[in-house]
Amino acid sequence: MMNINANSTSDALLEDLSEEMIIDQVSNDLADVAQPRSGGGRRDLPQMMRKIPVTLTLEVGSARISLQDLMAIGPDSVVELDVLAGEPLVIKVNGTAIGRAEVVVAGENYGLKVIDLDGLNLDMMAP
């Protein structure tokens, strides 16, 4: 006959052992990230971050209109924006403003000419 208390005790020990193994594996994985690899150099996190793709956009301006006015917009409609003609446009990276620019023609495409960058700090990622 099997002792039920002994069975539940061994199950608890197995669960504890399993949790310890998982914690050890996570600790080892974190240590691998922080430690230099054999034959290679230390992982260069700032250099790796420079390769992350981002979306760069130019924001011309915006307009706050009613739903009624929005429903009335058609192919020949003109919506006045909150930016004066000739003013620099806002450069955004992933939706965050980082500076101002002008629109230019680059070959057959539009491009941007940077006027100033006030919200971009790549110095913290310098090698």
TrEMBL record:
Cellular localisation: Cell membrane
Main location: membrane
InterPro entries linked to this entry: FliN-like_C, FliN/MopA/SpaO, FliN_T3SS_HrcQb, SpoA-like_sf
Topology relative to the membrane: Peripheral membrane protein
Keyword Protein biosynthesis: no
GO molecular function: cytoskeletal motor activity
GO biological process, one term: bacterial-type flagellum-dependent cell motility
Keywords assigned: Cell membrane, Cell projection, Chemotaxis, Cilium, Flagellar rotation, Flagellum, Membrane
CC per GO annotation: bacterial-type flagellum basal body; plasma membrane
Family listed: Belongs to the FliN/MopA/SpaO family.
Protein name (record): Flagellar motor switch protein FliN
Record organism: Pseudoduganella aquatica
